[in-house]
């Protein structure tokens, strides 16, 4: 009998191993890259979600604040429209007269006028103090100027039309005559 030599199988050779491992490594590295890109995409989407959530909360807050302000200042336009006739009424009731009968009528109208202003004051109307105050362009509108060196420069000398605030918002600026003079200008104007 012939003897057959049986070779012992020790597994794949080194070359064969390298050939088999190369596609596995490439496949693993592709999977790893794909996994990393998916994780990055998840991070971006989470960031977008957080930003959108924050934006929605800010929008809700703004809408709530606008609703509050709308309710708070709902009567602002009505009060602005009423100021002109009420100012005229105030001038009329404070008009000096010697006629006793007219004084009685004016006294009654003055009481009504005061009640109107009291109601508006209770709702948040406030007169801007302007007479003998330093001119402030936020609250005063200068319509005339005069040079009086006996008084400080920039002081309101007269109030031509009263100004009002409504719940700390400017409703109408006070129209004033201001004192403006200069030592440099020989004409003091």
Examine the secondary-structure arrangement and name the CATH architecture of the largest domain. Roll
Give the full name of the CATH homologous superfamily of the largest domain: Head domain of nucleotide exchange factor GrpE
Strand order of the largest sheet: 1-4-5
Strand content: 15-25%
State the low-pLDDT regions, or none. Answer: none
CATH class of the largest domain: Mainly Beta
Helix-residue proportion: 40-55%
Largest sheet: 3 strands, antiparallel
What Rg, in angstroms, do the CA atoms define? 43 Å
Number of helices: 3
Overall number of strands: 6
Structural class of the secondary structure composition?
alpha+beta
Q: What number of domains?
A: 2
* Mean pLDDT rating: 84
What's the order of the H and E elements? HHHEEEEEE
